[in-house]
Prior knowledge:
Strand 1 (3-10) and strand 2 form a beta hairpin. The protein has one helix at residues 74-79; strands at residues 3-10, 13-20, 29-33, 44-49, 64-70, 90-95, 109-113, 129-132, 138-141, 161-170, 180-186. The chain contains one helix and eleven strands, in the order βββββαββββββ. It is mainly beta and 187 residues long. The strands form four sheets. A four-stranded antiparallel sheet has the order 8-7-10-11, with no helix packed on it. The chain has a three-stranded antiparallel sheet with strand order 5-6-9, with no helix packed on it. The chain is globular.
Amino acid sequence: MPASRQDFQSGNMHVTEMIPVASLKAHTLYVVTLEPDPGEQRSSIATFETAAGPDVTAPLWEGISAVSVKRTSRKEAENCNRCPDPNKPWIEIDLKRPTDDTTPEEEILYAVWLPDKNGQVDESKPLTTYLRRLPLGHLVLGVRDICMNAPEESGLQSFKGPFKAILRPVDWAGHMGPPHEVRAVLK
């Protein structure tokens, strides 16, 4: 079945969002494949089984419980050739628990809209990236460990002063829950 495709990269996570052009059948196993280059064999990248009916409910979420700006200490940076520059901050976002009728809590992703060069966030524009919640229950915006081999997609080091971003939980069906603002002061 043909689908539209959009790719997002965040740190060491790559998300490919595929949206089928037609409704999927209930209780059906689907195999996701990508069109191969000429001369290559088709290979599957994922499988999933649809539920009894459509998922029409977005995740519920009470938002953010805490936001903190972190930096590598100068001592850590001097003693570790893999630690990020102390001048490049990252933001840790502690989350309140999301709920969804079909997507397990640990599988919910978070859509992120980052500010433009003028510090404005526009949710009507395409999202910037997706983030996955870490095992300790928080998200990391920015690069906290160069071992991740991650691009500095957030560009946090270029901001000084008030910083704002928007987060929304996203379930397996792509439904987005309510938005919440991340606010921090970057020095």
